[in-house]
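@channel sequence for tomorrow's demo:
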Amino acid sequence: MIFFCIADKESSLGFKFSGVETREISTKAEALEAFNVALAVKDVGIIIITEKAASFIREKLNEFIYQKELPLIVEVPSRGPVKKRKSVSESLKEIIGISA
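structure tokens (generated this afternoon):
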């Protein structure tokens, strides 16, 4: 099982240095193409995607996450200013309607 990273230019360098196959993106079309490439690569078990990259293809990511078990999609913060993130309980309530 291997990792594949889809990242904005500012966030990609660390993944490249660690040996993770990485696609830099800056547009919605590039993000969608990189996601399709990641799905086509044999043995990809985890796709790491930065928040900025994920924002371009949010609908496609959510559709995939809810329909498939693998590869696992892990969204990580992008470099730069930190925006407010949802808590786990907020995410659970949104996803399955359960209040924790």
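heads up for whoever presents: The longest strand covers residues 2-8.
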